[in-house]
Write a structure and sequence with these properties.
This protein is an alpha+beta fold. Helices cover 27% and strands 23% of the residues. The protein has a 5-stranded mixed sheet with strand order 7-6-10-8-9, covered by helices on one side. A 5-stranded mixed sheet has the order 12-11-15-13-14, with no helix packed on it.
Length: 433
């Protein structure tokens, strides 16, 4: 009798424990569902894997083949070469022309030492001089030698030289260039900049110690060629990383460009968003939120202020300067579905769809899940609504609750274990007949 009493007591304890455990798990699931979802992590998708030695050798061979093909092609020029700007150097090919009593045309190549050997004139130092200066010097030196003829010097082919591209680019290395290549083209040759690059102040370091600065953002958005200078032999293009000690803001979204970004002093919110290319045609500006930390002078604590710069007045759009430490939260382009569905996860946001629509897209089994008790957590307002016809906005979480049959499964499992124990105990003769 005592053994039967103990077994029955254990049975009751198991049942009570199962009920409590199930309620706790349901409460934990509800808390997880009713929290603001994190942005989708695209890092594994967009990050490049570490290059192996085999990959590097393959890339190197392709690059050499591309270089050979380029050397055999005619140069593609933007426009006619300006003699006042083109800098002559070793490898440039000229044509020395004579007309009159004596007519001939001789090819001349600038030597590695930067000198041009003109017939009957001798060596002329031309390295680092403009094309116009070289043509003037050659005419001045050759005119007395060829008294009854006209003399001219024309540039026939451009030289090739080496430029070093380093810093926050995909493939830092030394590249072959010509005097008609610009900074932007050499950065593209190096695979483009990384996501850590500070594109606003790229350096072009010359061999004589001069440094020119280039704004890649301005070039990409406006096509501004003012600072996109031509490169020269021995130049170093340095793409700096974002400055940890500078003014930084965090962009929170489910797009590729989310993360830490450096801002220009006094930069406006709209121009910043355009610069980092996160605005799309369907982006709702009214739902962009800026979280700003403010220091409380009285007690030294920091309070967070939630601002919606584009929501109240259109005139504010052009006049909202960002500050160091701001967090810019962009509206999501996804809706997150959880609970009693076959395919939980993120789904593209489509205007005017309801909770039932998204639950159906996720494979919700309305026989095993109660569609009428579906909950929608609104990310923008932080409120929760219940019902199948609730209108879902971008970034919301749709949770389809499991039915009572699914909730009762833990009880059945516990009961099955307990029944097995009783059968084993009776077989062992622990219970009386």
């Amino acid at each position: 009798m005592n053994i039967r009493f103990i077994v029955r007591l254990l049975f009751v304890i198991f049942i009570l424990w199962g009920m409590g455990y199930t309620q706790v798990m349901e409460e934990e699931e509800r808390k997880k569902t009713m929290t603001l979802p994190q942005a989708i992590d695209f890092s594994k998708i967009f990050d490049q894997t570490k290059m192996t030695r085999e990959d590097f050798e393959l890339w190197k061979s392709r690059r050499e083949a591309k270089l050979k093909e380029r050397l055999s092609m005619i140069e593609a020029l933007e426009q006619a070469i300006d003699p006042e700007e083109y800098i002559v150097g070793p490898g440039d090919v000229f044509s020395f022309n004579i007309w009159g009593a004596l007519e001939m045309q001789l090819p001349l190549v600038v030597s590695p030492g930067g000198k041009l050997l003109a017939p009957s004139v001798g060596e002329i130092e031309v390295d680092g001089k403009t094309l116009h200066e070289v043509q003037s010097i050659v005419y001045r030196e050759a005119a007395p030698v060829y008294e009854n003829s006209d003399v001219s010097l024309t540039l026939d082919a451009l030289r090739f030289f080496r430029v070093h591209v380093i810093g926050e680019v995909q493939f830092p290395s030394t590249y072959i260039a010509q005097a008609v290549d610009r900074i932007s083209g050499m950065i593209t040759e190096a695979g483009g900049v990384t996501e850590r690059a500070w594109k606003h102040r790229i350096e072009l370091r010359h061999s004589d110690g001069r440094i020119d600065f280039f704004d890649l953002d301005s070039f990409e958005q406006e096509g501004n060629l003012t600072e996109d200078r031509f490169v020269n032999g021995g130049d170093v293009i340095y793409v700096p990383p974002i400055e940890i000690g500078g003014s930084l803001v965090r962009v929170t979204s489910d797009i590729e460009n989310s993360g830490i970004h450096q801002i220009i002093p006094g930069e406006q919110l709209l121009s910043f968003l355009q610069r980092i290319r996160v605005l799309k045609r369907n982006t709702d500006l009214s739902k962009i939120v800026v979280v700003r930390k403010e220091n409380d002078v009285s007690d030294g604590s920091g309070r967070k202020q939630v601002l919606t710069p584009f929501k109240t007045d259109e005139s504010i759009i052009l006049d909202f300067p960002l500050q160091n430490g701001d967090e810019v939260m962009l509206p999501s382009t996804f809706v997150y579905v959880k609970g009693a569905v076959r395919n939980p996860g993120a789904f593209p946001y489509i205007m005017n769809l309801t909770a039932k629509d998204y639950a159906g897209m996720a494979g919700g089994d309305f026989r095993s899940g109660s569609i009428e008790s579906v909950r929608v957590y609104h990310a923008l307002t932080g409120k929760t609504e219940k019902g199948a016809d609730v209108l879902v906005e971008a970034g919301d979480v749709v949770h389809l609750n499991p039915s009572w049959s699914q909730r009762f499964v833990p009880y059945l499992q516990i009961l099955g274990v307990f029944t097995s124990v009783i059968i084993a105990a009776r077989a062992a003769g622990l219970f009386g007949q």
